[in-house]
Amino acid sequence: MTLFAFLKSRPIFWASVAGTSVGCACFIKDLMQGGKFTKETDETDKVVIVTGSNTGIGKETVRELARRGATVYMACRDMKKCEEAREEIVLETKNKYVYCRQCDLASLDSIRNFAATFKREQANLHILINNAGVMRCPRSLTKDGFEMQLGVNHLGHFLLTNLMLDVLKKSCPSRIVNVSSLAHTRGEINTADLNSEKSYDDAKAYNQSKLANVLFTRELARRLEGTGVTVNALHPGIVDTELFRHMGFFTNFFAGLFVRPLFWPFVKTVKNGAQTSLYVALDPDLENVTGKYFSDCHLQEVAPAATDAQTAKWLWAVSEKWTCSPILDIKTEFDFERLNRRNMCACIDCLLCPCIVWPALFGLGVYFLRQYMQGGQFTKETNETGKVVIVTGSNTGIGKETVLELARRGATVYMACRDKARTEKALLEIVQETGNKNIFFRELDLASLESIRNFVADFKKEQDKLHILINNAGVMRCPHMLTKNGFEMQLGVNHMGHFLLTNLLLDLLKNSAPSRIVNVSSLAHTRGSINIDDLNSEKSYDEGNAYSQSKLANVLFTRELAKRLEGTGVTVNALHPGVVDTELGRHMKIFNNTFGRYVLRSLLWPLLKTPKSGAQTTLYAALDPELSNVTGKYFSDCAEKKVAPAATDDKMGKLLWEESEKWTHSKK
After folding, report:
1. How many angstroms separate the CA atoms of 108 and 106, rounded?
2. Helix (H, G, I), strand (E, B) or coil at 463
3. Nearest to residue 108, comparing CAs of 315, 321, 325, 316?
4. How confident is the model at residue 595 (pLDDT cuts 50, 70, 90)?
5. Which stretches within 528-637 are classed as H helix?
6. Is the confidence at residue 326, as pLDDT, over 80?
7. I want to staple 560 with a disulfide (CB 3.0 to 4.6 A). Which of 61, 63, 614, 653 is the partner?
8. Do the domains 384-583+611-664 and 41-240+270-324 match in fold?
9. Does residue 605 have a pLDDT over 70?
10. Kind of pairing, strands 47-51 and 71-76?
11. What is the pLDDT of residue 99?
């Protein structure tokens, strides 16, 4: 028996093959989700229309607009599905200003009725998102005799947009967003047979309608110049929606069972498919951008055919003529073409091969394990404008992610770090991503009491308020070394440094009440004990025990401080961020050799949190409104957890406090 045959007959072979499959599937799926619109905007008092919004990316667009406070009109043909979607969105976002109004884009009368009804209800319109569409359907005609794809995708939106121009101009700055497609690059405007009466190809008709969207966008932008109304087109990506319902290749039993799973890694979720629509509709940086085409939240080049100004003018004239006539002399011929079924046998045989099925199942298992291990997420939206926050150790890892999210929510954040170059680089990245310029670097070395005192003195010269102090910095399992003041490094940085920093800032925190202190501890506190006879590890040193002792000290400090601050309006809580893939483990030898870097890290990858997920409990403890009066507690995965018995020893907590006061000379 050859080695290959030997492995093939045993489970280890499938596990080996699975490794490759997993990496490819997960990487491709994540990559294909494309750009994300992450800027927070307040759309309160904005009025928006979204066509075709009872499902797919239209529904997700409405959901996000509602979450941001907009008044949204869902313009749909199927009122039952629209009402179901509306109810779901209202319950989820708590925004009651979401309305369903009937608008059948295959009927000019319906479009005119919708526009008239809307104008009776609203005097303003800030955003019109022409999202609805049909794709590669058998040849059929609209109620007015237009080929269905041209009629719905282009002519219906052409009429709707023109009927809404008066309220859009009155509400400027306002925006029009046309959802086109990459398919426009394969399209051409058939001026000799625009309505596909002589011949019909479902793909060509779709491509033509999407090219018409882009030409319409560019011509309309030219006509609206100087009015304060912008218009842009976009490609949402290949999204898993009902748009493919007319494609026979995807609607038969075998395709649904076997082919769709093959396409899964390459298809965007509907939420990700809506990101470019939201970007074009809401991004403040695009306020004066018009006549452009976007994909994955970035400006993209259009096909050469889409830059033909003469064709655009011709198409506008024809569209104007066709949509303004109540009855058009257009041939109403139905030419339903039977779609050829593909031979699925070879595909099925391939998919049923164990070399693909079992690795795929294994890959899904690893993927969902990875997702599960990310733990609780803090998803509540809070506005931290006007709040002043200090985050120690924030130029990398969960500290950096914490600052990034605080900046996104509008806070003024001080990054208290030792390494100037790394912090300034991280600060620049955060400012560029969030647009929040109230992010500052101030030097702080927690291994030096003098540096801590200098930091506090400088901070108090700049700020008379402090609403949140996040003691995040730490070192883990380092070789035996001492701080500048002679403390064992892990005890000195993780506990003593933060003890002094917190006490020096208590006056500001009390003046700013309600305020919060957040101490980043660890699950390692459960293995810790306070060695009161050798607190500074002078007689013996074990890196693991010293780290666990420092993390237990964090929890004891938290509980004792909570008692001392009772009634002041200042709360203090500790937390375990999870096992996070950061630089904290840089001193652990097992991960610093070749085997550790490439083999162990790969094996542990599904079990590790990302820095973003690692920051969630910190954000929860710092920002959740429900914790405004909660103090002296310990959290993990955005939920309260029990501490180890050693952390409930109040006598040890007081003793540690007294020793810490002596060592840091912080007693007043």
Report:
1. 7
2. coil
3. 325
4. low
5. 543-564, 594-595, 601-604, 611-614, 616-623
6. no
7. 653
8. yes
9. no
10. parallel
11. 97
Token pair, residue 491, equals 């005890």
Of 111-115, 330-334, 370-374, 598-602, the range with the lowest mean pLDDT is: 330-334
The domain made up of 384-583+611-664 has a fold known as: Rossmann fold (3.40.50)
Residue linked to tokens 């005799």: 145
Structure tokens at 20: 């490759």
CA–CA separation, 616 and 612 (whole Å): 7
Among residues 381, 583, 568, the alpha carbon closest in space to that of 474 is found at 583
As given in the structure block, the two tokens for residue 123 are 């005097």
pLDDT tens-digit readout, 441-467? 999 999 999 999 999 999 999 999 999
Which residue do the tokens 């629509």 mark? Answer: 277
What residues pair up with 9 in beta bridges, in sequence order?
A: none
Cβ atoms within 10 A of the Cβ of 11, count?
Answer: 9
What is the dihedral sign for C-alpha 115, 121, 123, 128? negative
What's the CA gap between 630 and 343, in Å, rounded? 64
Which of 200, 279, 293, 547 does the annotation list as catalytic?
547
Short-list 422, 430, 507, CA closest to 469: 507
Structure tokens at 630: 């909660």
Burial class (CB in 10 A: 0-12, 13-18, 19+), 120: exposed
Mean pLDDT over each residue of the chain, to the nearest integer: 86
Fold of 41-240+270-324: Rossmann fold (3.40.50)
Note the pLDDT of residue 582. Answer: 59
Q: What's the alpha-carbon Rg for the chain, to the nearest Å?
A: 31
Give the whole-number percent of the chain exceeding pLDDT 90: 72
Q: How far apart are CA 482 and CA 496, in angstroms?
A: 12
Nearest to 39 by CA among 439, 408, 411: 408
Name residue, tokens 């405007």.
Answer: 189
Does the pLDDT of residue 239 top 60, yes or no?
yes
Contact 83, 100 (CB under 8 A): yes
Classify 237 in phi/psi space as left (phi over 0), alpha (psi -120 to 50) or beta.
Answer: left
Q: Is the pLDDT of residue 289 over 50?
A: yes
Find where tokens 């700013």 sit. Answer: 512
Six token digits for residue 573: 């809580």
Tracing tokens 């008044």 back to the chain, one arrives at: 71
Q: Helix or strand or coil: residue 50?
A: strand
Read off the pLDDT band of 578 (50, 70, 90). confident
Q: How confident is the model at residue 135 (pLDDT cuts 50, 70, 90)?
A: confident
Interior angle at CA 377, CA 96 and CA 370, nearest 5: 130
Is 620 tagged catalytic? Answer: no
Domain regions of the chain by residue span: 41-240+270-324, 384-583+611-664
Q: pTM to 2 decimals?
A: 0.50
Residue 35: predicted pLDDT:
76
Angstrom CA distances, 238 to 34, 50, 132, 604, stand at 10, 20, 15, 32
147 bridge partner residues: 141
C-alpha pair distances (Å), 44 with each of 69, 85, 95 = 4, 21, 10
Are 278 and 32 within 8 A, CB to CB?
no
pLDDT in tens, 527-545: 999 999 999 999 999 998 9
